[in-house]
Write a structure and sequence with these properties.
With 70 residues, the protein is mainly α. It has three helices and no strands. Helix 1 runs antiparallel to helix 2 and helix 2 packs across helix 3. The protein is globular and about 30 Å long.
Length: 70
């Protein structure tokens, strides 16, 4: 999978978190975190399973909400 497709996947996660997460301030924090990780290339060369694991870890690192996972 190319880096543009990977970025689009992460951006879709961000869009959904911003649109649906119950706490807007936390959603904003999560969006900033995921975009920063995306910009630093943290997700670039990961398999699908490793991407899901990495994004899940990043989502849960911000507020320890175990309901957030990819």
């Amino acid at each position: 999978m190319g880096s543009q497709a990977r970025a689009a996947q992460v951006e879709e996660v961000i869009r959904r978190v911003e649109a649906h997460y119950v706490f807007p301030d936390v959603a904003e924090k999560l969006a900033k975190l995921l975009r920063a990780r995306l910009d630093e290339g943290a997700y670039a060369d990961l398999s699908e399973a490793d991407l899901a694991t990495a994004v899940t870890a990043d989502l849960q690192s911000a507020n320890d909400d175990k309901h957030l996972r990819l």
